[in-house]
Amino acid sequence: xxxxxxxxxxxxxxxxxxxxxxxxxxxxxxxxxxxxxxxxxxxxxxxxxxxxxxxxxxxxxxxxxxxxxxxxxxxxxxxxxxxxxxxxxxxxxxxxxxxxxxxxxxxxxxxxxxxxxxxxxxxxxxxxxxxxxxxxxxxxxxxxxxxxxxxxxxxxxxxxxxxxxxxxxxxxxxxxxxxxxxxxxxxxxxxxxxxxxxxxxxxxxxxxxxxxxxxxxxxxxxx
Length: 223
Prior knowledge:
Layout: H1 3-6, H2 20-30, E1 34-38, E2 44-49, H3 50-53, H4 62-69, H5 74-85, H6 89-92, E3 94-95, E4 100-101, H7 106-116, E5 120-125, E6 128-134, H8 135-144, H9 154-164, E7 177-181, E8 184-188, H10 194-205, E9 212-215
């Protein structure tokens, strides 16, 4: 699937000239944790999120803020002051946010979210904002996913498991043997660690038609 297949196109956006108070109310009313900031032409300028607002002066005393900023350089202290005291969205937003093209695969979205620790990514088409993709959109893909379509029968199950063993599972090269009888999968091989055993079991359980998994791996060495 591609980003455009799951993104939200009805995006709640903000102007850089909106007030921070307006942004906070909008996010609260819409039950969102962040919003893109765009100019009059639809060009993305930045994003504003809960993370940009958690150190506002409205939430803490000046003494607390100053203590948190001790030990950093002048520019960092100045930027922190703007974040906690600026009244315009354009002053407190995060500029140059991570973005993604609408034709990118969902795997790229998940990777960017994990690498940058973010919850949502603006989606662009020819440099213009056309949507936003969030962690919630990815969760919807997970619970809407169709079941595995492996053909019925023990031999089909066995072949499917063998193929998947080589697909970046951590089990490559462990010479795992597989037999299947009446939908019960039996696994043998040099699989000694708990993590690899768990991966082997989950891999087998994920194949359509499997009714159970029996492990015949050697006993784990004492810890």
